[in-house]
Design brief:
alpha/beta, Nucleotidyltransferase, domain 5, 2 domains, 8-stranded mixed beta sheet, globular, binds adenosine-5'-diphosphate
Length: 397
């Protein structure tokens, strides 16, 4: 079975053609500058690569057509015809409270995704455009929507409610939704496989640490709390996002500097986080380099981030009444041995004991805790596209 996974943005579209059973990636690439001019990138093992070549893309439909042409190209393609694509899995950012799992796309589903636009005004419209373009180019091929928020819909009310007047929840759907759900679900499933246990038997803390970061408590295979909130601005400090902060700061700064709410939110989303604290970069590699050359603020930014993640691990262990394994994933979690060590050390009191040698690993599944550590610490590379393909396959079968 072949599943095409689509992640559509407003002017870009990422794609992967995968076999969800074997996990084999047949081809992947990116369409950029849709609606402007159009750049097309395509990679498949052992085939000629196209790198940002000019392809006219007035709309997402031409972008999808370019993907089809490349996949079925007699010389560099990986399939004979479009008939060899059994289904399409679409990443959709926000499913609100309407979706607690992936679903086959129907007219009602499209309407419900539209209803969630106020919750994700930048992302859901782009995701919808991608779905409609695919439907146009690939009529009759079953399509599935996989939501970033769905995995977290199992959170209990005490975890998802904000302590605001209740009507803002009832009337306006203001609550914690959480994001990165596809990634947390994937690594939690892999953790159970690595530990030889059923997901129902495990209490896990999944740390997705990348440019955007979130930490999730997974009890018995279900998300019971997560650090991102109503929007992906909440939680630990991120590349350029502030993470949690005292809302009183907004009033203070907005008054003092005559900032509009849009200007303030732009600061919180784009100019804060480790970038804002360090003044150096949003990229953790640059921060480590700068710190080694004596930049104390770069060191402070990384330290604040690591401390934020550590505090959440403690909080979620308390929330679940224990933890069997802590998982590190995404750019920082998969690559930075030093940050994994900084985050997990000092947690010996709750049964976490790292193995410094085992931790000298990058980008592959590994147990990085000591043999006698009561709580296992796992490195698990995330694979959101494979998770989307797996969900899609299970729904269309
Ligand atoms: P995104 O949220 O954009 O998907 P990623 O999961 O790709 O982000 O993570 C990007 C982050 O991972 C960057 O901040 C980058 O610095 C960090 N990263 C990648 N490699 C390393 C490394 N070797 N050491 C520390 N951080 C790394």
């Amino acid at each position: 079975m072949n599943v095409l996974v689509i992640n559509a943005g407003s002017s870009s579209l990422k794609y992967q053609l995968l076999n969800p059973e074997s996990g084999v990636l047949l081809a992947k690439g990116l369409c950029e500058r849709i609606g402007i001019d159009g750049k097309f990138t395509y990679k498949a093992d052992g085939k000629a690569t196209k790198d940002a070549v000019d392809v006219s893309m007035p709309t997402h439909a031409e972008a999808i057509q370019a993907v089809m042409d490349a996949l079925t190209d007699p010389a560099d393609g990986v399939i004979g015809s479009m008939k060899e694509i059994d289904a399409v899995g679409h990443r959709v950012v926000h499913g609100g409270e309407a979706f607690n799992k992936s679903v086959l796309i129907t007219d009602e589903v499209l309407k419900a995704i539209e209803d969630c636009i106020p919750l994700a005004p930048l992302h859901n419209p782009a995701n919808l455009t991608g779905i409609r373009a695919c439907q146009k180019v690939m009529p009759g091929v079953p399509m599935v929507a996989v939501f970033d928020t769905a995995f977290h819909q199992t959170m209990p009310a005490r975890a998802y409610m904000y302590a605001l007047p209740y009507e803002y929840y009832e009337n306006d759907k203001v609550r914690r939704y959480g994001f990165h759900g596809t990634s947390h679900k994937y690594v939690a499933g892999r953790a159970a496989a690595m530990l030889g246990k059923k997901p129902e038997e495990l209490k896990l803390i999944s740390c997705h640490l990348g440019n955007g970061s979130s930490v999730t408590a997974v009890d018995g295979g279900k998300s019971v709390d997560t650090s991102m909130g109503f929007t992906p601005l909440a939680g630990v400090p991120m590349g350029t996002r502030s993470g949690d902060l005292d809302a009183g700061i907004l009033q203070y700064l907005m008054n003092k500097y005559s900032l509009s709410i849009d200007e303030m939110l732009n600061i919180l989303n784009k100019k804060s986080g480790v970038q804002g604290v360090s003044g150096v970069s949003s990229d953790f590699r640059d921060l480590t380099d700068a710190f080694e050359k004596g930049n104390a603020r770069a060191g402070l930014a990384v330290d604040m981030f690591n401390y934020g993640v550590k505090k959440l691990i403690g909080a979620y262990a308390a929330a679940m009444g224990g933890v069997d394994a802590v998982i590190f994933t995404a750019g920082v979690g998969e690559n930075s041995a030093a940050q994994r060590m900084a985050i997990a050390s000092g947690l010996e009191f709750m049964g976490v004991k790292m193995d410094a040698d085992a931790n000298k690993v990058r980008g592959k599944e590994a147990v990085i805790s000591a043999a006698d550590s009561r709580v296992k610490v796992l490195l698990i590379p995330t694979n959101e596209e494979l998770m989307i393909a797996m969900d899609t396959a299970s729904i269309v079968k």
